[in-house]
Design brief:
The protein is an all-alpha fold. Among the domains are: about 55 residues, no CATH class; about 90 residues. The protein has seven helices and no strands. Helix 6 packs antiparallel against helix 7. The longest helix is centred in the last third of the chain and has 80 residues. It is rod-shaped and about 155 Å long. The N and C termini lie far apart (about 195 Å).
Length: about 230
Amino acid sequence: MSNWSLDSQNAGVLCSALDPGPTIPSSPAPVNIREGIPHSLTTSPAKPKRRRSARLPVDQATFAAENARLEQEWLKVQREWGCYPQQARPRSRREELQKLPALCNDFDSFEKQMARLDGQPDDQDGLVRQIRDFLNERKRALERQQAEAKMKQNMESVNRTRQGVEDFRRESDIQIKQLKQIVHANGLELQQIAHRADQLVDEVSSNPCGGFVSLGRREETFFSLNI
């Protein structure tokens, strides 16, 4: 046998081994009973369904009312921060809260806005009025503290003056008491001198002739007492 024949036989065996043969389906395709046609041939391939988002009906009146409210809010906020530059003004209450630190740090515009707000009626309901009320309350508190401090200084000054008056009165009472003692002592001496003078007068009147000599002696004694 030649090599070619062996190769031919091996090739045929190889082909027969590799050929799987006809396949038998495990389950038959569904058959349309009415027409006898397989179901896979009568039905079209399934297409993905489109999901339609449910759209809620728009209430035009509510929409218009909300727009009007936002517009009024914008106008009020713009008016409340009117002394600030246009680009620095908040456009809503929420933005007002967000920009509040920057608004308060702009001292020039803030002072102008406070001065302008002081001249307007208190019909504001935004943060500007709350800030002004807070600043006014703090200002009043500072004024009360200053008034209390000044009153305390005045009371201390009054107490010092009162203490000085008491010290002066005490010293004056001591001096007056000393003067009274001196006057009383001098009064006693004057009474003694007057009593002695009365005695001399009585002696002279009782002995008019011989009383001149004794009177001279008594006068010397009287003057010596005075000296």
